[in-house]
Amino acid sequence: MRESQSNADASVGSEATARALAPTDDDAALLTLEVQFDGLITELLAAQEANCDSLIFPDERSPVQDSSQCGIDAESDHETRMKEVEAILARLYPIEQAIIQTPACTVAGLGVKARHAAYVMSQYWEGSIEGMDWHARTVRLLIESVCDVAHASLPLKARRV
Questions:
Q1: Which long-range contacts (CB under 8 A, 24 or more apart) does 38-42 make?
Q2: Residue 123 pLDDT more than 50?
Q3: Looking at beta carbons, which pairs linking 42-47 to residues 24 or more positions away fall under 8 Å?
Q4: Which of 65, 104, 121, 153 could form a disulfide with 110 if both were Cys (CB 3.0 to 4.6 A apart)?
Q5: Would residue 60 be called left, alpha or beta, if left means φ above 0 and alpha means ψ between -120 and 50 degrees?
Q6: Is residue 139 predicted with pLDDT exceeding 60?
Q7: DSSP letter assigned to residue 137
């Protein structure tokens, strides 16, 4: 009798674990927000990278060549790219607010929230974990653990080290 009860308990436990890990309609809103979040983060990183590239070598000319015209073009291009970054950030803000305000009902939903936290706290991935203070290390390890359990990768901005 004990063995059959034990097997029944194990199967109920594994079913509950599977349900908790599987995305459901309960977290459909968070999973939709995650897709939007990922798209905008990819767009933002590309715009920021393009902005940095245009400052270093505008129009693929050396900084010495045609410095008077190059400086004017670079400044104008930089302003345009900054406006593009600001527009992406403005579109990202309500998505981030919705992720924060939407409760997670499953581990998959919790993974969405952890990925967002990693993005917001990306400075915790800039250096070695050994050099971090206790609070920063705790936050980083918690976020990484939640992402691992949820089978969620860290966002690009947080994967530096």
A1: 38/155, 40/88, 40/91, 40/92, 40/95, 41/92, 41/119, 41/155, 41/156, 41/157, 42/156
A2: yes
A3: 42/156, 43/88, 44/85, 44/88, 44/89, 44/92, 45/156, 45/157, 47/81, 47/84, 47/85, 47/88
A4: 104
A5: left
A6: yes
A7: H
Q: Pick from 32, 37, 30, 45: which is nearest to 106 by CA? A: 30
End-to-end CA separation in angstroms for the chain: 52
Average pLDDT, the chain: 80
Kindly report the length of the chain: 161
- What's the pLDDT score for residue 61? 45
Question: Do residues 112 and 27 make contact, with C-beta atoms less than 8 angstroms apart?
Answer: yes
Tokens 């079913």 label which residue?
A: 15
Instruction: At 155, list the tokens.
Output: 């966002």
Residues 8-55 have pLDDT tens digits of: 444 444 555 455 455 456 899 999 999 999 999 999 999 988 877 655
**In this structure, what token pair is assigned to residue 131?**
């050099």
pLDDT in tens, 102-113: 999 999 999 999
Measured CA to CA, the distance from residue 38 to residue 159 in angstroms comes to 14
